[in-house]
Amino acid sequence: MYKEYEVFHKGNQLYCRRYGVGEPIVLIHGACVDCDFYHNAAESLSRRYSVTTYDRRGSGRSDIPKGGDYSVKTQAADAAAVIRDIGSPCYVVAHSAATTIGMELAASYPELVRMLMLHEVPVVECLAAGSPIIQTLETVRELIHAGKYTRALNRFMPLIGPADERKPVEVEDTSLYSKKNSDTFIRYEFENIFYYSPQYERLQSRQVITSVGERSLSTHYGEITVEFAKRIGAPLRYLPGGHNSPNELPYEFAGFISGTIALTI
């Protein structure tokens, strides 16, 4: 069970959920989804922690920003507003596209982040020169600039990889807001996220843990995350599953979060 509530930041409403009691954890969802993505993981974690999830701006039940600002910097400020409402520094977990928001949050608001856990980083500049993925992402960007959003999304989606057949039957595959979520990402977030340049030096002095799914090691997400971890000197952990393991294998993912926190207390 969870409590629903709202946080307002610069006039924009952010839909939030609070599960359980205990040390506070914030889970930030990635692209084309909303906070439903984390429901099962959050319920599992709520046996020991107070877990907050929220729909990022323009996604799920949150407002579409009137000014059209979807920058990583502004979304990090949204996350900071959610944490300030909680009232104490939090363990922050970010997945995929949201890892850039987590990076900006930790670099710009270090007083709010007890530990940052990043699952599968998408930053293009961490790919090796000549990677065929770079050309694929450039094609997606060109289609977006041409206003061909459906074609851009169709070109992008295969990069996520196949679903894990071990996914529990109780985990939902869809969201009531899936079209809104996908439109927000492909129209407004794609370039901000994939071409974001992290503040590596600032992150080197923060407590950051990176992770990658076992099935992603041979993909571009594995390559990027390994390189990013090297650049900031962060530990790299390996989890069951692939890119969407926080949703597809939520209980294993929750166990990873709990174990990681326990080792640092």
Question: How is this structure best summarized?
Answer:
With 265 residues, the protein is α/β, with parallel strands linked by helices. Helices cover 41% and strands 19% of the residues. The chain contains ten helices and eight strands.
Binned, the helix content reads: 40-55%
Mean pLDDT reading: 95
List the total number of helices.
Answer: 10
Strand content: 15-25%
Q: Specify Rg, calculated over alpha carbons.
A: 17 Å
Largest β-sheet summary: 8 strands, mixed
Instruction: Give the total of beta strands.
Output: 8
End-to-end distance: 27 Å
Specify the structural class: alpha/beta
- Spans of at least 5 consecutive residues with low confidence: none
What spatial order of strands do you see in the largest sheet? 1-2-4-3-5-6-7-8
Oligomeric state of this protein = single chain
* Helix-strand sequence: EEEHEHEHEHHHHEHEHH
What does the overall shape look like? globular
Write up this protein.
- This protein is α/β, with parallel strands linked by helices and 265 residues long.
- The protein has helices at residues 39-45, 72-86, 98-108, 132-145, 149-156, 178-194, 200-204, 220-232, 245-248, 250-264, and strands spanning 3-9, 12-19, 23-28, 49-54, 90-95, 113-119, 208-213, 236-239.
- It has an 8-stranded mixed sheet, sandwiched between helices.
- It has 10 helices and 8 strands.
- Helix 2 (72-86) crosses helix 3, helix 4 packs antiparallel against helix 5 and helix 5 crosses helix 6.
- The longest helix has 17 residues, at 178-194.
